[in-house]
Design a protein that fits this description.
By secondary structure, this protein is α+β, with helices and mostly antiparallel strands. It has helices spanning about 1-20, 45-60, 75-80, 90-100, 140-155, 180-190, 195-200, 210-220, 225-235; strands at about 100-105, 115-120, 130, 160-165. Helix 1 runs parallel beside helix 2 (about 45-60).
Length: about 260
């Protein structure tokens, strides 16, 4: 009973820091098998993580004010080009601040199996993109970021929102999965490398490192994004590991424990 009481106390504190009961992402308070989350996920741990992300966002001062409809394919494509810079993740955070969107990095809790989330707490509040950086790689960062932003652009309707994602489940999608997850995948992929551009690349698991780098330079994105697309398309997740930018994201973005 003491442990339960302590947990309830901690959740109460998080709710207060996140903005009160109106900030609680209600979709997480009930089991939803359509969400892209691991079956082993502890719902209460997931709720605690989301509340922590919302609380962290409240300590951030944004440079701009979010405008509904501002997140679209054109914007996401522009953001993807920031990946070509050595400090791309930091530039992305600054760009989102100008747009009135929070980007917070909060370490995943045990039993959350989480890569990222798109949240909007108190009604009318700024969108929050929250990432765990559990896979500290350039390719994972940019896909996760753009996928969550795609949720903001496509699926936020002004109420308290919550989309949570374990991207390892993309490799074994459930037939019960919310179709909005596929919509966000498609928009993120198109923004990173358009379907037409990718079709012209002719890159396979046998591609050379120099070929991947040359293609990435031609389209203006980090080689990790191209290598990651080849790995996903071919299901060869051992290929091109040196190109993925492992260990490069946490150097630039604060990860709240």
């Amino acid at each position: 009973m003491a442990t339960k009481a302590k947990a309830e106390e901690l959740i109460g504190e998080l709710i207060a820091k996140a903005g009160g009961m109106n900030a609680v992402p209600m979709p997480l308070c009930r089991r939803n098998d359509a969400m892209r989350q691991n079956a082993k996920t502890d719902t209460y741990a997931l709720l605690a993580w989301c509340l922590k992300a919302l609380a962290v966002s409240r300590d951030q001062k944004l440079a701009g004010t979010y405008q509904t409809g501002s997140v679209n394919l054109e914007l996401l494509s522009e953001l993807s080009k920031l990946s070509a810079y050595e400090d791309g993740p930091k530039r992305a955070k600054d760009a989102l601040s100008d747009l009135g969107i929070h980007l917070v990095c909060v370490a995943h809790l045990p039993k959350t199996y989480l890569d990222g989330a798109a949240l909007r707490g108190v009604e009318g509040g700024a969108p929050v993109v929250a990432l765990t950086l559990r896979y500290d790689r350039i390719d994972n960062f940019w896909f996760s970021l753009l996928h969550e932003l795609a949720h903001v652009g496509l699926h936020f309707n002004g109420a308290a929102e919550a989309f949570v994602d374990d991207f390892s489940l993309r490799e074994a999608p459930s037939r019960h999965e919310d179709p909005r997850e596929n919509e966000a995948d498609t928009l993120a992929e198109e923004a990173l490398i358009s379907r037409e551009t990718w079709a012209s690349a002719g890159l396979t698991a046998r591609a050379s490192y120099s070929g991947i780098i040359a293609f990435s330079q031609r389209i203006g994105v980090h080689p990790a994004i191209v290598a990651g697309r080849v790995r996903h398309q071919t299901r060869n997740f051992r290929a091109f590991a040196p190109l993925l930018g492992t260990g490069e994201v946490r150097k630039q973005l604060e990860l709240v424990q």
